[in-house]
Amino acid sequence: MLYELAQSLTSGLLIGGALAVLSVGFSMAWGITHVLNVAHCAFAVLAAYLGYWALNRWGIDPLLALPIMLPAFFLLGVAMHTLLIRATARRAHDLGLATMVLTFGLGVVMENGMLLAWTPDPRVLKTAYSALTLRVGPVIVQAPHLIAFGLAVITIGALYLFAERTFMGKAVRAVWQQPMGAALSGIDLDRVTTIAYGMAVATAAVGGVAMSLLYTFDPATHLSWLVYVFLVVILGGVGSMLGSALAGLIIGLIIGISSVFIPLAWNNLVLSGLLIVLLLLRPQGLLQR
Amino acid sequence: MTHHTSRRQMLWAMLGAWIVALTVGACSQAPAAPAPTTAPAAPTTAPAAPTTAPAAPTTAPAAPQGASIKIGCSLPLTGAFADTGVWVQRGYEQWAEDVNAAGGLLGRPVELTIYDDESKTENAVNLLNRVISVDQADLLCGGYPGTAAAAQMAVAEKNQKVYVSMGGHMASFSQGFTYVFGAPPLMGQWWYEGLYGWLASLPEAERPKKAAIFTINNPVGAAILEPMPEELSALNIEIVVNERYDVPLTDAAPLVTKAKGAEADIFFANGFFPDSVQIVKAMRALDYNPRLIAQGVGSIIPAWVQELGADGYYVFSGTAVHPSLPFEGISRLNDVASTKYNAPVAPIYFIFGYAWMQALQRGVEGAQTLDQTAIRDWLKANQISTVAGTFTFDERGLPPSYNYLTQVIDGKVELIWPPDVRTKDPIYPKPAWGQ
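Structure tokens for the assembled complex are given below, as produced in the milestone run.
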């Protein structure tokens, strides 16, 4: 029992990191720019495919491809915000709802584009470290899990430092907390929200690569990944980077613990119950920053 | 409406969406949960090689004449099941091409109309109604996957139209329908028939002793799991872990640690491709190497070997059709798949599609009419041959239970059981990971 618990907790915790990094951009986009980007995970799956392609076409590890993908996804996000989101915002009565519909359509287009490009066949990322493990006492830590967790720590840590230590980061926080006040202080709302949105899409690339280290993927996978993202954002609090990190870890831990003590099929029941209670008691989520 | 209220509503909506997604995830792969099996204890025999199946035409027959026989159905040509749905479509089209080249059906050309149901069951039902009432098709072709087929079976029965398909496991054939046929069916309850047969052939000392069973929490998994306790008990294999899991499977490590902790030496992963890949990867990472791994419906698709490589080797599974079976017409389908579609062999759903249409063809040719009741009665009273084997049907439209045992060996899905179709000797016990 002790071995099962330790193994499941370790594995769950590391997976929680991957869920957190997948979700942080979605949370940021919603919290800061009020854009409900349900295509967020389609961007993540696109990154997973690009990583897979880099590995199988050119032998470049997806982690090494990330420095190229990050600016590309950032620019993609900037372009999307400039061309689509702002135009929608000018006309929409309810930005959240309008962007949800807009990005849902975008997600469908992206899914079909990926179907054409890569077929519906499911893919498994096989890197040089896919089968590597690290033994800590009786517990075995899988290298891909550890790397995905590391990606989460680096990405969320960098985002946090950006928000806390840089002028632009502080502007982003100001826009998140009080847009009107930020505008009155001379902050260019369009510029800040566009940059924040670009960063959110760039984190989707990291999340996609992290998830592809752990899970199989195909063009339709973005919908099941979005399920995890919903979970993390509800628990962590909309717009909160640290909330996403904490929520991801909590979800991983709950899955790990409940898998040992109750039947596996009850995992989602436990999570659903927890979320209902949380929404009733603390609808703003665990953290507010 | 304030931002705060709006956001709160959105969060509740998200929670609702999450719960719906879980429900849909559990139900989207197959029809309603199977009813208790009422299958008669038919002997487990694989279909015999046909003796009367026509080969591809070698001499130019008379061209079909007269008005076309209209055949209609829907298939998932886009969406979640499109990859296999397209192969069923290709099987149907190949059959139509072959029949027309051989002089037609009852001397008339056949004309296929296949609608795209976008992998949605409700579309499949609406489109079959359209095929029957608007298009007034003479014959129906079957839908795919099990969810769509099961829903369409009710439509076909209501309209008294013969409907040949994979069906939706035993539950769909236990409704008292008389116009439906599984020729062959894809039957979860029969999935490990070949495995049970092969295990029974081993000396008891060589059989695994303890089984860990993990089953996807949906109707396909339920269908596969249903006969397992009884079958394993008959083989003196004790079930030490028996759990179901929801998809998407977040973490496979708890499953594997439970099986490892219980020292199970036969591991059943009754799931689909994504969850089974996770499980196999976790088994390797956690250094759990049972004597035998049996997998549900994920390991017989090409992606298993392409994507998992050697880690996916030695896994046992089941199938109702296979490109190496010795039935007439299979080798030609392999050639067609290779030349037309650049596939190494005929994919399983290509063979399924072709076989279902052949079954319908046999009924029409046997009855010598397009009268649906006459076709149904002829099929129930006669033996038919297809590229999937020779079948007779009981009152439910099912052949006697059968399934072949497969094992992935050196990157190929080999036939292991029954012995008369064996393409390679099984590798058992499973070698250590990486060997």
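Residues 2-119+158-281 of chain A form one domain. Residues 2-33 of chain A form the longest helix (32 residues). Further analysis is deferred to the final report.
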